[in-house]
Amino acid sequence: MNNNNFFKNIEKKTGVNMNEVFELANSLQNANFKDEKTVRSVIKKVSRIANKPVSQEMENKIVKSIVNDGKQLDFGTISNMLNKGKK
Please, what's the largest Cα pairwise distance for the chain? Predict the structure, then answer.
């Protein structure tokens, strides 16, 4: 299976557009994660791409965790936080 078919299968199963994921990943490379505005923007993009709404309270917790507490920002961190925020 070539990469194109692999990513198309992921898109079918998850509903997540892989081009958007790659664009987001590229934008993260030079992002300043000490900047609250940047972190909020990334959270909103991930939420939109994953089709998982993030409440203001959860967004604030994620921002605090990354900007103030120095946690690394990656897909795993955001995914874990989104899943913890589910009821």
Answer: 43
Smallest CA-to-CA distance from 59 within 37, 27, 30 is with: 37
- First-to-last C-alpha distance (Å) of the chain: 38
| pLDDT tens digits for range 14-66 | 788 888 888 888 888 888 888 999 999 988 988 888 888 999 999 998 898 88
Where do runs of H (alpha helix) occur along 29-84? 36-50, 56-63, 75-84
CA pair distance 35, 12, nearest whole angstrom? 35
Cα distances (Å, whole numbers) of residue 79 to 2, 4, 24, 83: 27, 24, 14, 6
- The SS3 of residue 87 is coil
